[in-house]
Records
---
Amino acid sequence: MHIVNVFEKDTIVAPATPPGEGGIGIVRLSGLKAEEFLCDYFSPSSATGRLESNYLYHGFLKDHRGHVLDEVMAVIMRQPRSYTREDVCEIHCHGGGLIVRRVVDLFLRAGARMARPGEFTLRAFLNGRIDLTRAEAVIDLIRSRSELASNIAINQLNGGLADKIAFLREKLILLLAEVEAAIDFSEEDIEIEGSCSLGKTAGQMMSEMDDLIQSFECGRIAKEGVNILILGRPNVGKSSLLNSLLGEARAIVTDIPGTTRDTIEEDLVLGGLPLRLVDTAGIRHTEDPVEAEGVRRARSKIEGADLVLLVVDGSMSLDNDDLLAIDACRHKDVLVVLNKADLGSLPFPDCLGQFPVVKISALQGLGLTDLVDKISQHFTFRPEVSEARETVILTEFRHKQALMAARDSLGRFRESLVQGMSPEFSAVEIGEALDRVGEITGETTPDDVLDRIFTKFCIGK
Ligand SMILES: Nc1nc2c(c(=O)[nH]1)N(C=O)[C@@H](CNc1ccc(C(=O)N[C@@H](CCC(=O)O)C(=O)O)cc1)CN2
Ligand SMILES: Nc1nc2c(ncn2[C@@H]2O[C@H](COP(=O)(O)OP(=O)(O)OP(=O)(O)O)[C@@H](O)[C@H]2O)c(=O)[nH]1
Ligand SMILES: [Mg+2]
């Protein structure tokens, strides 16, 4: 996609509802000719004259030959009172793949262009209705899989992050003004006293930025979910564990060691925590090339795991393959799952002493609540669901990066004061911090970054 400029003349069209059957399907138009296109094909059943903005009208949509396509409801939202701040029309037709497709085709034939992914929201951004953090929140909200993630997105959509950034920008601008005053009025360095108070302000801002930067860890988890890897030698019950946590027979379970080959990934929410569970092939030495590939895949997942559930058969003593599995995850956060508790248990092996342990029976569904609690406890830094509505939490790596760069600039600014550098030099660092902070809300974001953000959207948003 190419970022269009604010004077984009195309009128765009796209289905706003997902493909497939539904109660109603919505087709949306935005641009200079949206109203003209609608009025060419829509006959309201009772209204006469010009349709009023933001009123929903009943009527019939007719194709270019005058044949009725569908009985619909339609609305015009004249600029700037619309999502994109351009003229927007919506046609609420019957929900069905074919009918929605026909309505879209009608407007394409009339001269509208198919909207690119995220293009409605892009226009809302380019036309100044929302800043970039709100645009990003729109897609986060659509994609959110947990209450926590959606609360964070709603807060961001309401401007929580944008307000914080605006606040930081204001302070930076004040700081810059003071430094520039020093440039104008003095040949020398900034006065010692002034330099002290400027340094203090910079320090305060740095710590505000640090708080935001630190919230990212939690935001990332809320948005993407934690990666939980199920690891262990063959036949200990890894797939049984996956199935019992999912509550369905997702993975094949047999008593033959080496049953699972491919990694099996499933997203779910446990105890309010969104997570991705990955079941893997049992770790062991094997001559079978297919199983060996499975083991390689299992090992390749270890690096990216936030937590490893190391499954062992609690009713048997550890063997060499168990030791291989233990060794494979020695650098990771591990929770030992002693499975098959229904078969009785041996004393807990010493070599696992350093790990937290939970006893379960995947077969009988025993101990699962305890397991879920232990997993939740491991991710203690996540906020409460309700708290997320009021607290600003970063979920974009892009935001974190920009804030880190801004904080580093402020650090150099402070250093330059201590070293008694010329105010011109110090001013450059504040300017740099301003640019970085502006990237977050979109004031100074490069086009290729905007491109990347909006192409992640779905069609019709
Ligand atoms: N039918 C429908 N439902 C929808 C949307 C939509 O576009 N159409 N939305 C989007 O996809 C979301 C709602 N978001 C919206 C945000 C702003 C405006 C809007 O027109 N804002 C004007 C002021 C409106 C007024 O004063 O009445 C503005 O900000 O200037 C519309 C929808 C979710 N539901
Ligand atoms: N008694 C008992 N048997 C279990 C339990 N969990 C799993 N099993 C049995 O152990 C065998 C192996 O289970 P799987 O879930 O396939 O084991 P796995 O670790 O995925 O095995 P691979 O895919 O070969 O690595 C099956 O016969 C299961 O029914 C349990 O808690 N108690
Ligand atoms: Mg398995």
---
Amino acid sequence: MSAHSGTQDLAVEHEALLQFLYLAPVGLVQTSAAGEVELMNPLSAQLLMPLSKDGGLANLFKVLESVAPELRGMAEDFISPQGAICEGFRAQLTGGIRGKEEPKMLGISLIKLAPDRLMAVLTDMTQVIAQERQLKYNTAWLNAITAGVTDYALMSLDHDGRIQEWNPSIGRVTKFTAKEVVGKYFSVFYKDQGISIDRMTDYLREADEDGWSLSEGWRMKGDGSRFWSSSMIVPIEEMVAETGGGAPSVLQEEKRYALIIRDITARTRDAGARLNAMSTDYLTGIANRRTLFESAELELKRWHRHPRPLSLMIIDADFFKKVNDTYGHAAGDLVLCDLASALGESMREIDTVSRIGGEEFAALLPSTDSEGAFQLAERFRKRVEAACVTFEGGEIKYTISIGISVMDESVRGFDDLLARADTALYIAKETGRNKVEIWNGLKRALRT
Ligand SMILES: Nc1nc2c(ncn2[C@@H]2O[C@H](COP(=O)(O)OP(=O)(O)OP(=O)(O)O)[C@@H](O)[C@H]2O)c(=O)[nH]1
């Protein structure tokens, strides 16, 4: 075979590859190590275009920065010359609008083909997510039914969520004594009783309306240790005989619930790590954008059931580009980690604190009205202003701006709530930075 025909063969192969790329039923994007796009098929353009801020698709990481800020760091930290950088990473694009549409999700796999060549495979995962949710509930049911006899505690709750009577399964799983739990709210299984009456009521109402309420998380044992638990609440309606005042007994419908708590610490150790990787931000370790959208969907559902204060804060580091330019990218990363951990420390357990963009964070605050959110934001802003980050022996000082929006009837969905907080943030930036603004309707009136 002559050198010439060899080159021709390669050209034919390359042409075939391009054809495949062009027609593939998934989005395929070839980039340099820094994310500069070299090749992309039409489906990729269709999936990515709505995310582009400037109408261009020149750099994959830049386009995805607002929905998957972790990707750039993952690619940079991947030192092998080739291999899978991430598989099935999920980037949340939009939240659902109640009763109208499913939240949109983009699946991203990133493969390093050569030191300076990456290939991204993009898929629209919107349908998959809806199916997965159903599967999760089905699995929870199956687990509850088929679990071994020793790993679950089953108890009945009265209509307000108080534990009605003792049985040995409670002691076996939770190590509490009868005296410590009977007659108490089921919040006794949460650290420092760290769940509000409102939140307990939410779970009970969810069980009423959906047939069950499912939650996973750390729960406390009577001996002070904690375990990772899957808890399910199911309503039970029972006809009970009511007697009183000498009147003949009548059958009354009494609302009660069954609470099933399972200790799944051991079983979820591996799965938990995998789940963690999907729900936490790669750089800072706090929740990612996807987790925020999942929490928001639940909170908005709760709000529509029983409106009560719900606020959203967007927190953005000021002049962050300057931090990167002055001290370097590694210092910038450190500042982001500092901001994330300070934010985590300042919020409650029921708040969802997440990184939603490059230097942008969000906190979703249930049971918090605009005044409460404003005070919290101000306290946090001052805390950041007063602190500094130590980097290579020097000190980096930075400030933040915060935009707040509050849930009300006119908010169409989480995207809308997010857009309002974003507008408030924009005003805070435009009017000097290092300040807090609350979204204030179309007039965008400024807070004094
Ligand atoms: N170190 C680091 N920098 C990041 C990361 N993600 C985004 N950035 C940088 O954050 C900077 C954001 O810059 P701009 O959007 O111009 O905003 P800014 O400089 O903070 O200015 P204002 O927000 O207007 O106060 C860009 O330089 C990004 O490259 C990251 O994960 N690590």
---
Amino acid sequence: MAEKQYEPTPTVIADDIHITYKVQSGGSTREVHAVKGVTFVAHKGEAIGLIGSNGSGKSTLLKAVAGLLPPARGHIYTQGQPSLLGVNAALMNDLTGERNVVLGGLAMGMTRRQLRERYQQIVDFSGVDDKGDFITLPMRTYSSGMAARLRFSIAAAKSHDVLMIDEALATGDAAFQRRSNARIAELRAEAGTVFLVSHNNRTVTETCDRALWLEAGTLRMDGPAKDVVAAYEAHTKPKK
Ligand SMILES: Nc1ncnc2c1ncn2[C@@H]1O[C@H](COP(=O)(O)OP(=O)(O)OP(=O)(O)O)[C@@H](O)[C@H]1O
């Protein structure tokens, strides 16, 4: 008997979205059209890489999916509350890592009880304490890699309907990248959708099954991560 085929469940639908920034410059207002008519559907269980050159609109698109920027035109539908984990996520530099774990967890909707239960797991996962008692020091004493690891660990402690990661992995070392790849795989298994913005093509092919390639605000290609990365690499390779 043929196995029953399940329809994939959409988690994010972006329908012809346009996003503009208004910039005040020398008394006049200029408009930057950062995303120009992007359409895609993301499904439960997918990990989707967003690639493209600097300024192509990747972060802007993620912010729009997270509901932080309203589209000027078009519509975004999401199932559940998307969480954006960026390298600039709102952790406080003057507070200790410890306090940031608590505040970051609460900001993501974890209860105090969940936080108590998962606190040590978050700290251990981040590896921030591996080289001494750094978790009790202010975050400004952390290297950029340590801070990024703590941010990822806080966000990854919770199952998300839609988790968006902006370059958080690129700064981790090899051991941390292995741990975070494994955690992303678990998050996917918990039936969420993961978006990852990265300039590291290998990270994208290793962690994502699908990729969107943005260029100058438009979607150049959407398909299996290895195909999209190969096309992007062919495009960015210096011409002889
Ligand atoms: N706050 C802002 N105000 C005005 N313009 C902005 C703002 N943020 C981004 N832009 C512009 O929007 C466009 C897309 O930027 P975005 O940060 O989304 O690109 P990106 O693909 O994430 O780039 P990168 O790879 O460099 O991080 C760029 O032209 C950028 O100058």
---
Amino acid sequence: MNVNMKSIGLTESLSQEAMNYSNLLVGRVTAQYKDSYKVVTERGEFIARISGKFRYQINNQVDYPAVGDFVMVDGINDVNGNTVIHHILTRKSIFSRKVAGSRNDIQVVATNIDTLFLCMSMNNDWNLRRMERYLSITWDSGATPVIILTKSDLCEELAAKIQELQPIAIGVDILVTNNLSKDGLQSVFKYIGTGKTIACIGSSGVGKSTLINRVLGNDGIATSETRKDDKGRHTTTRRELFIVPGGGAIIDTPGMRELGIVSSDISKSFADIDQLALQCKYRNCTHNSEPGCAIQQAILEGSLANERLHSYHKLKKEIRYGGLNSKQIEREKINTMFQGISGMKQARKMIKEKNKRNR
Ligand SMILES: Nc1nc2c(ncn2[C@@H]2O[C@H](COP(=O)(O)OP(=O)(O)OP(=O)(O)O)[C@@H](O)[C@H]2O)c(=O)[nH]1
Ligand SMILES: [Zn+2]
């Protein structure tokens, strides 16, 4: 399978960065196994391992290649099939989570994503607090969130549900889909196309794999239906990037029962609360019981849900405890950004934006 790398997201600046390694070929990681990776290049698909030197330089989990990474490889003509990954090119977005059961281990779920489809089904998976988490993490990852409400055929109060969602999804597109009819899918195609990478996240069984199969026009991914084995839990056992026939790439992720937060951008996902807080009487108001608290006032008046304030507090606390992890990620972002001249520019831009945000 020969792949047009531009079509699956190789940008001008990545091509430039790749020129620093003139004897290597650029590829994209499409799947990850125990200690090898599937990589597509313009000359076909290969199973690759990382070089000894690369492994030696790795300090922590986030330094390893992940699905979605553009990497530099050689050895594709090796008769023994020893294709080797030597470098990861600058990541423009990193979507990561804390690994369940471990306090500090970060798992990079996928990288270089333009749009994250935050999937939630309109029947039994409905949970606004979870969506708030997804949104915070997405804003921080560098990708743009789009909310995909699935299984609309199983929901009778569509308008009411969307109304419920709107206050927590300011500025975010909300699409209503239904995998059983073609009409319900038209809206998602707007985000898919040449050069673009989508990743789908959401609880197990909401229909991510079914949606991707529809987009790809085949039944390539086993859904819980086609596998006929259980209740729809953990059907997708690994992350995988698929090439969309008309251009672009789409990444399936396993249903995550809990999305441990590594870092998240609360200032964006809870902009309404930050805005209100400016009107609190005391600058260091904790919004619990202080007099003149604009947030408590908004709750009294019914313009802000108490539960939303609760998740705001909860997320803030989690991030504080996970501070070390966000620093690790931050360091990773800066390291990779300083590779190559175009990387310098990006790093400068990022630091500027960061300062703006912290002001
Ligand atoms: N009624 C209805 N059922 C759907 C829809 N989309 C998917 N399903 C069914 O929901 C079940 C789960 O779908 P999957 O696509 O495997 O869900 P998933 O989100 O990929 O699940 P994991 O792989 O476990 O993360 C399957 O039986 C699908 O046929 C829909 O729009 N409406
Ligand atoms: Zn207050």
